[in-house]
């Protein structure tokens, strides 16, 4: 794999995309250290390290929240806007028509709506965060002017990181927003390892517990890779055609259906969905709503883990349903003279493909849900975070890495290189 990767760097276009990706990620990492005025960064960092709502927010900001930086909101407003737009697309006929029937122009129009919604949500969440920090005593000044400056800076940072993410998708390798989250998680790995060994040295963490946690992380990594790579193969037979003295077709092949069609997006959507109520509670106020938000975002709580597990299953099915069209696939097979043995072409083939995909997706989605919550359960039992990565972080890192490697592989196959994943 490494030999092929080094050979791929000889491709000028791929080399430029590599450099663009590194440059964009470097700029974003620098942005996570640009401080926002009036915020007491050290007190906020101590609060974030306690986990809960702020811990999840810090995950999506790549550490920007702990640094009280310009990118403290990270890509969370964009993710929330994407979730809302995806839900609206499934219930509003006009949006569904734009998504499915008008091709690239329709998708660009929907993306424009997502940007507008991101501005609105970013403004709402920025002001909510400023008010919440003021109530927690994290601000040096609590005047209306200081709150406005903080909200304006955070909104500008959210839109800047969105623009950088879209630019990264266009001129780099992989999905820009996913790579931003990926880079933030990886950047925290050295400090997590150092902290774990410091806990062992001070006696707060037993060495056996650390070894068990590392082994658990490795097992979760292997299980996640296996799940993302697994596929269900449906046999397809192509009819034989005779043209003159030559015979064409007649070969048997298969239709590969990946168990996780939606990639890493269900995990990202589920995580951000759990954080959204607390953001609304900070803006609206109210003890009950704030308490609900805290319960949903507490990774050690039973309610959080149950809802997180169910949300992963829901978003896996939901995103698969809007990105995978069995009817179109059935028509393509029929168009090229193919058929599934024992299944009539047309509507029966589409129904069969949809049924197989649904049955294959369910155990994979359940498995992903269990992987996501297992470190949280482990942590609550031991009382210490012995895992180097949490379940959400593991799923995001592996999912983004595999999707990026597949995109690199597509460039290699065009240039007749052997695939990276083989």
Automatic annotation (TrEMBL):
> Which top-level group of life is the source organism from?
Bacteria
Where is it localised?
Cell membrane; Membrane
State the protein's name.
Protein translocase subunit SecY
Q: Subunit structure of this entry?
A: Component of the Sec protein translocase complex. Heterotrimer consisting of SecY, SecE and SecG subunits. The heterotrimers can form oligomers, although 1 heterotrimer is thought to be able to translocate proteins. Interacts with the ribosome. Interacts with SecDF, and other proteins may be involved. Interacts with SecA.
Membrane-spanning residues: 21-39, 59-92, 145-165, 177-199, 205-228, 264-285, 305-324, 360-378, 384-402
Signal sequence residues: none
* SUPFAM superfamilies assigned: Preprotein translocase SecY subunit
Which controlled-vocabulary keywords does the entry list? Answer: Cell membrane, Membrane, Protein transport, Translocation, Transmembrane, Transmembrane helix, Transport
Q: Which Gene3D superfamilies match?
A: SecY subunit domain (1.10.3370.10)
- Cross-referenced PROSITE patterns, in alphabetical order? SECY_1 (PS00755), SECY_2 (PS00756)
PANTHER family per the record? Answer: SECY/SEC61-ALPHA FAMILY MEMBER
InterPro entries in the record, alphabetically? SecY, SecY/SEC61-alpha, SecY_CS, SecY_dom_sf
What GO terms fall under cellular component here?
plasma membrane
How does the protein's chain sit in the membrane according to the entry?
Multi-pass membrane protein
The UniProt entry's sequence similarity note says:
Belongs to the SecY/SEC61-alpha family.
- Gene Ontology BP, a term: protein targeting
Describe its function. The central subunit of the protein translocation channel SecYEG. Consists of two halves formed by TMs 1-5 and 6-10. These two domains form a lateral gate at the front which open onto the bilayer between TMs 2 and 7, and are clamped together by SecE at the back. The channel is closed by both a pore ring composed of hydrophobic SecY resides and a short helix (helix 2A) on the extracellular side of the membrane which forms a plug. The plug probably moves laterally to allow the channel to open. The ring and the pore may move independently.
Q: Give the species.
A: Psychracetigena formicireducens
